[in-house]
Design a protein that fits this description.
The chain is of the alpha/beta class and 186 residues long. Helices cover 34% and strands 19% of the residues. It has 6 helices and 5 strands. It has helices spanning 3-21, 28-31, 49-52, 72-87, 117-124, 139-151; strands spanning 37-42, 60-65, 99-105, 161-167, 174-182. It has a 5-stranded mixed beta sheet, with helices on one face. It binds zinc ion. Zinc ion (ZN) binds at residues 42, 44, 67, 105, 108-110. The site of zinc ion has 7 residues, from loops.
Length: 186
């Protein structure tokens, strides 16, 4: 069986299971209220939040890019997400506690790009001289910097809890670097 056949077979099993459990969510307004978190993570195949954190369908919106970093592109995705919520008539986190989680990890591929500052500067849309504050070689410092960056986004509701985590690819465990706290205190 080739790779695609194998994946399609897994999909059939997924569909049967979800259908039997009544957990399919065919419309966005139906799905939105179930979302309890937005997770920002790295595209690395070892660190899928669905695996690492046991995220089930409908539980969280997951945005992934290289490094799980806050970049202008990521912020644009967040902005569009908010708009989709408005259009669907449901704002994520409209009721109850809502989390925004930045999940980065050890041995991230982005650290290997440290030798290519022009590429990284373009990714973050900053000058090469400002790259130091992005801490691309230190996941703990990077996740802390990105939580600070998200706190500075006025469009994010102040009551949402924000946290920064680092997943250790050697142990499979997640470490809390920035404990959950409201984005802004009133
Ligand atoms: Zn990574």
């Amino acid at each position: 069986m080739n790779t695609l056949d194998n994946l399609l077979q897994r999909n059939k099993e997924f569909a049967v299971k979800q259908s039997a459990a009544g957990t399919l969510m065919p419309s966005l307004p139906q799905a939105m209220p179930k979302v309890k978190a937005i997770i920002i993570g790295c595209a690395d195949m070892r660190v899928d939040p669905a695996h690492v954190l046991g995220i089930q369908p409908g539980e969280a919106v997951v945005l992934r890019n290289i490094g799980g970093r806050i970049t202008p592109g990521l912020l644009q995705q967040l902005s569009l997400l908010g708009r989709i919520g408005e259009v669907a008539g449901k704002i994520p986190g409209g009721g109850g506690e809502f989390q925004i989680i930045v999940l980065q990890h050890t041995d991230c591929g982005i650290t290997r790009l440290a030798r290519d500052p022009a590429l990284l500067a373009a990714y973050f849309q900053i000058q090469e001289g400002e790259l130091k504050k992005k801490a691309v070689t230190d996941p703990r410092a990077a996740v802390a910097a990105d939580v600070v960056a998200l706190r500075a986004v006025p469009a994010l509701p102040g009551t949402w809890l924000i946290s920064g985590l680092v997943y250790d690819v050697a142990t499979g465990l997640v470490e809390i670097v920035v404990p959950p706290a409201p984005i802004r205190t009133a």
